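*Target chain*
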Amino acid sequence: MDERDEERRMVAEHIEWQKQGAWVILWGTYTRTFWAFACWPVVPEGGVVVHAEDPDLLYAEMRFVEREHDFLRWRYGRGYPG
Protein backbone atom coordinates (compact mmCIF):
# COMPACT_ATOMS: atom_id res chain seq x y z
CA MET A 1 0.00 0.00 0.00
CA ASP A 2 1.28 3.44 -1.02
CA GLU A 3 1.72 6.09 1.70
CA ARG A 4 -0.81 8.26 -0.18
CA ASP A 5 -3.46 5.55 0.11
CA GLU A 6 -4.31 6.53 3.69
CA GLU A 7 -4.78 10.15 2.59
CA ARG A 8 -7.01 9.07 -0.31
CA ARG A 9 -9.00 6.79 1.99
CA MET A 10 -9.59 9.81 4.25
CA VAL A 11 -10.70 11.87 1.24
CA ALA A 12 -13.19 9.12 0.35
CA GLU A 13 -14.43 9.12 3.95
CA HIS A 14 -14.88 12.91 3.85
CA ILE A 15 -16.86 12.80 0.59
CA GLU A 16 -19.09 10.09 2.08
CA TRP A 17 -19.63 12.28 5.16
CA GLN A 18 -20.52 15.25 2.92
CA LYS A 19 -23.09 13.17 1.08
CA GLN A 20 -24.82 12.28 4.39
CA GLY A 21 -25.30 8.58 3.77
CA ALA A 22 -26.55 8.89 0.19
CA TRP A 23 -23.38 7.26 -1.17
CA VAL A 24 -20.77 4.77 0.00
CA ILE A 25 -17.33 5.96 -1.13
CA LEU A 26 -14.22 3.80 -1.36
CA TRP A 27 -10.63 4.27 -2.43
CA GLY A 28 -9.42 1.28 -4.46
CA THR A 29 -5.77 0.65 -3.61
CA TYR A 30 -5.45 -1.79 -6.51
CA THR A 31 -7.42 0.22 -9.08
CA ARG A 32 -6.02 3.58 -7.86
CA THR A 33 -9.56 4.89 -8.28
CA PHE A 34 -12.30 6.37 -6.11
CA TRP A 35 -15.58 4.41 -6.27
CA ALA A 36 -19.03 5.69 -5.28
CA PHE A 37 -22.05 3.44 -4.78
CA ALA A 38 -25.46 5.13 -4.51
CA CYS A 39 -27.53 3.93 -1.57
CA TRP A 40 -30.67 6.01 -2.01
CA PRO A 41 -34.10 4.54 -1.36
CA VAL A 42 -34.88 5.39 -5.01
CA VAL A 43 -31.82 3.82 -6.68
CA PRO A 44 -32.60 2.82 -10.27
CA GLU A 45 -32.78 -0.89 -11.05
CA GLY A 46 -29.26 -2.20 -11.50
CA GLY A 47 -27.85 0.36 -9.07
CA VAL A 48 -25.62 3.36 -9.62
CA VAL A 49 -21.84 3.16 -9.42
CA VAL A 50 -19.44 5.88 -10.52
CA HIS A 51 -15.67 6.04 -10.39
CA ALA A 52 -12.84 8.48 -11.04
CA GLU A 53 -9.13 8.76 -10.31
CA ASP A 54 -9.57 12.30 -8.97
CA PRO A 55 -11.91 13.16 -6.06
CA ASP A 56 -13.14 16.35 -7.75
CA LEU A 57 -14.10 14.40 -10.86
CA LEU A 58 -15.80 11.77 -8.71
CA TYR A 59 -17.83 14.43 -6.92
CA ALA A 60 -18.83 16.03 -10.24
CA GLU A 61 -19.90 12.67 -11.63
CA MET A 62 -21.92 11.94 -8.49
CA ARG A 63 -23.73 15.29 -8.84
CA PHE A 64 -24.42 14.57 -12.53
CA VAL A 65 -25.91 11.16 -11.69
CA GLU A 66 -28.00 12.64 -8.86
CA ARG A 67 -29.52 15.13 -11.30
CA GLU A 68 -29.93 12.52 -14.03
CA HIS A 69 -32.00 10.30 -11.69
CA ASP A 70 -33.84 13.20 -10.01
CA PHE A 71 -32.39 12.23 -6.63
CA LEU A 72 -32.13 15.83 -5.41
CA ARG A 73 -35.84 16.49 -5.98
CA TRP A 74 -36.65 13.32 -4.04
CA ARG A 75 -34.29 14.25 -1.20
CA TYR A 76 -35.24 17.92 -0.86
CA GLY A 77 -38.85 17.86 -1.98
CA ARG A 78 -40.96 18.91 -4.92
CA GLY A 79 -40.05 22.58 -4.58
CA TYR A 80 -36.36 21.87 -5.23
CA PRO A 81 -35.41 23.84 -8.36
CA GLY A 82 -32.88 21.22 -9.48
User: Anything to note?
Assistant: The CA atoms of residues 25 and 36 lie 4 Å apart. The first helix runs from residue 3 to 18. The first strand starts at residue 23 and ends at 28.
